[in-house]
Amino acid sequence: MSDSNTRTRERATEEETERSDEREGLDCPECGGQLINDSEHGETVCQDCGLVVEEDAVDRGPEWRAFDSAEKDQKSRVGAPTTNMMHDKGLSTNIDWRDKDAYGNSLGSRQRAKMQRLRKWNERFRTRDSKERNLKQALGEIDRMASALGLPENVRETASVIYRRALDENLLPGRSIEGVATSAVYAAARQAGVPRSLDEIADVSRVEKSEIARTYRYVVRELGLEVKPADPESYVPRFASALGLSDEAENRARQLLRNAKEKGVHSGKSPVGLAAAAVYAAALLTNEKTTQAAVSDVADISEVTIRNRYHELLEAEQDLPV
After folding, report:
1. Beta-strand (E) ranges in 6-60?
2. Domain spans of the chain?
3. Which of 53, 135, 228, 280 could, after both became Cys, cross-link 87 (CB 3.0–4.6 A)?
4. Which amino acids are annotated as binding site for Zn(2+), given as ranges?
5. pLDDT band at residue 299 under the 50/70/90 scheme
6. Domain 130-223 coded CATH 1.10.472.10
């Protein structure tokens, strides 16, 4: 019982001492005046006599000002967000390749050699096992192909997630890293509604078209991906932009494709071929100059296919009731 009372008295004494220290900290030790913080100069000074009690204080707040919550959130810096487009999700350290210090001055020979060793060991630590090396190579391929195809960042992120799932599901044995990475890009583009034709994908890939198609079907089946059939209308804006056609021609091409869907002409046809033919037909209907050869180059499809689909689209429109 006495021990309990003793501990209680000691705790009360400590709290009283802390409160007295806080009171002393708020008073000037010379005149007893009130102390204020000068954040501009990093000093604590007496308001009455001007005595500098503390200097070189550390400002733990941000160096920017925000006037509303939206601006505060925008200016807040808490590091780069994690991303699936990097094998370590962006959480590792990057050592700059330039041998310069924080002030832009060149490093000495010993420092350069030291930084080179650090870069080498940092690279080794970032890829500690075969799975991480595999992932690093594949994500680099995905980024390269997506850049060549002009795909947005959300498609790259989706393709990276698809490849990670394929790696976790052990779908890689017996298939090349490039093949699975290419099929992931193809599937992600179709899921995002910005599809690229298999020929366009094969042009930027390091594997054959037949292997891409085979691997794509396998990955979609094993991972249970929901990939809708490509809509011919999704190709129209890209083709029209590449050919320099007007908005009127683009809208006319869309209308031709909608008419073809109503008549069922699109069934079993290549969406790229239908889109190319619709763009060519729309250009002629709106009196804009273009050729089958130009459309063939942009869509990467033969002129024979364009001519065949072109006639089918016009027949479908003529058959519709007025």
Report:
1. 35-38, 43-46, 52-54
2. 27-56, 130-223, 232-319
3. 135
4. 28, 31, 46, 49
5. confident
6. yes
